[in-house]
Design a protein that fits this description.
Length: 156
């Protein structure tokens, strides 16, 4: 059930309908997952309307992947998610900052450094051509997600 999900816009809060579209699940499924996964706690405002933050959208995508793509049961996904959260906490305590996708970017560092030092558009453009545009877009998205997590005060 490999389905490409749309990019997550950079904004503070998302409605349950928006999250459903961003994650490829229906709102009633999201409400059910809130009961099953204690880490998933959207803010509720008047009329019991749910507002999800960026890190919760990422978590829902992770839950969706575990359940739909990797075939975990609810309890198995709950345990795996707890392991992932604990692993991230341990890496942060150790001072590591995970940046997914960095290993895929291959740049000739000497050529790029020379282009930056010369500060000429043609040499900088030549150095930039060594990086695939899709890799840069992936890295940009990851950096926006990290920035959002840092500004929101992500609890993980």
């Amino acid at each position: 059930m490999e389905k490409t999900l749309p990019p997550i816009p950079v904004k503070r809060y998302f409605t349950i309908g928006e999250v459903g579209e961003l994650c490829g699940v229906k709102p009633h499924v999201l409400r059910y997952w809130e009961q099953e996964f204690t880490q998933l706690r959207p803010m509720k405002r008047r009329g019991n309307r749910r507002y999800y933050q960026h890190h919760e959208v990422l978590m829902i995508r992770r839950i969706r992947d575990l359940l739909y793509d990797q075939g975990f049961t609810i309890s198995g996904a709950r345990n795996k998610l707890q392991e992932l959260v604990q692993g991230e906490r341990d890496r942060r305590k150790a001072g590591e900052v995970p940046l997914e996708g960095m290993e895929a970017i291959e740049i000739d560092q000497e050529e790029f450094d020379a282009a930056v030092v010369q500060d000429t558009p043609t040499s900088a453009a030549a150095a930039a051509k060594t990086v695939d545009l899709s890799q840069l877009l992936h890295l940009r998205r990851e950096l926006f997600e990290i920035r959002e997590l840092l500004t929101v005060g992500h609890p993980i």
